[in-house]
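Lecture 7 notes. Example A: sequence first, then its structure tokens.
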Amino acid sequence: MERARPRILSAGGDLLLFETRNRVLEAAGFDVIGCLRGLGAREWYAAEQFDAVVLGCFEDPGVRRSLIDDFKRRNSRVPILVVYRFDDPSETYAGADRLMESLAGPETLISTVVQMTRFPQGKPEPNDMPAANAG
């Protein structure tokens, strides 16, 4: 029986970066549920099963801090990746399982999520990947 695609809950506050990151993950074979600005993220997390969570940048850093705390309280086994900017206050990503600088690029995003989910992934073809950074 073939294993389902890894399911990722993705949330972030910057529309362009959020959409780009989600497209990169989808092109790599992940099933992505996106919640712009974190809206609905708690409800999705409580109602569905996810293999990992990816949290990007938010206008209010407290949103990310609150989501990490809530997700870990509900299920500490689901790994959380925080994609942070150089100017993000470090306390807003404490408790995350992995960290990635927003300018690290799509290859780093994919390899990090593959490691977190422990799902074997074929390497996407270069033409399948958006050219923008994953941040």
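Example B, a different protein, same format:
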Amino acid sequence: MPMKKLICLLLLTYMLPVTSCQDKLEPEVETNYLDYGTRKEMREQALRTLHDYYIVSDKSKNYYEVIAREADRFILNYYPAGELLSFCNDQGSGWSQQYRVDLSQLKRLADLSINLDTLHSFIYRDTIISKTAEWVEVKTNGEPTIHYR
């Protein structure tokens, strides 16, 4: 085999996987991946993790999110400028809920250690936090695919 063909073959073998399998990341989104804990632990810590992650950030992004990739596969996304908290219960199943939440309300949810499984019923009883009237699209590094209302 001529040397040029061998070099081309080697380059294709090693470069193709590097260039074709990279995840496309949204430049406006800062993502914290949760890859530890049980389902219950991740869902109990998600709001606290999101709040703390946003607080210590340099505030250079438009969206901040926590994504559980393995066993639980949820997305919790916060858009501070629009005061939106969006939740995808299972990646691939679409966005489930979206709420108007300012930073003080996000802190309150985090301090109360609201489990994501009970988030909707808690917010339903809370007169300060409300569901969005119409769905507002958000940017994410997760894969929610579609949303349901």
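Note on Example B: The beta strands are 29-34, 63-68, 75-79, 84-88, 97-100, 130-131. Residues 99 and 131 are 4 Å apart (CA to CA).
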